[in-house]
Amino acid sequence: MNQTGEPLLDVRGLCAGYGASMVLEKLDFSMGVEAVAIVGRNGMGKTTLCDTLVGFLPSSDGQISLRGRRVDGLAPERIARMGIAYVPQGRRLFPSLTVDEHLAMLARGTRNKRWTPEAVYELFPRLAERKRHSGGNLSGGEQQMLAVGRALLLNADLIVMDEPSEGLAPTIVDVLVDAVHHLVDEGVAVLVVEQNLRAAVRMAHRQLVMVSGAIEAQFAGDELLTRPDLQRRYLGVGTAKEEIQ
């Protein structure tokens, strides 16, 4: 929330889907300058929510407001300019472009702003070591760092990350967790969609559970992680502990 109590991101009655198939059903949530995680079983609409927030998928009803300004119905590039950046699932990098070239594409206009290519290299020193390497020759963790760094160059108010820890080693997840906390400390809000419950809880103090296209429950701290009964109820038969073993 800002000083007037207005949320940074406010989503009300959001509906979206594909053709006649509705995926998001009157979805509501809001967040301030914080890290919030969206968790839930596969097929609950988490990626659809990401695509709708950034304009890749048009909503059919409801509204999305960023700092009190409506962004639903706008083109993705307009939404990005208004302050929402996206780190998509699968990273979507260009295999033939180097790390430097990826960042250079978005570096124009970053002078005198918080996030520049140099600032990205400070946040992710490993990228600085690999700046001349092509995207296709980076490890999965390095690719994820680059995808986050690319989004940062938009100097947005909110970064939406879809499954950032997917397929990554624990040491790389540690780097991403630290990066998310650093961003929030710098005044950047982060909305994380995560299948990995442990990663979600470490990244975000507040977790929202999606069930059938709506927010069904909210938890804080590690309550969801330490309650197998809640995990079975909202996330399926397995528990986070069982998934790690």
Automatic annotation (TrEMBL):
Residue ranges the record marks as coiled coil: none
CDD domains registered for this protein in UniProt: ABC_TM1139_LivF_branched (cd03224)
Gene Ontology MF term list: ATP binding; ATP hydrolysis activity; branched-chain amino acid transmembrane transporter activity
Annotated GO biological process: L-amino acid transport
Domain of life the protein comes from: Bacteria
Keyword Repeat carried by entry: no
TM helices/strands, residue ranges: none
Protein name: ABC transporter ATP-binding protein
Domain spans labelled ABC transporter: 9-237
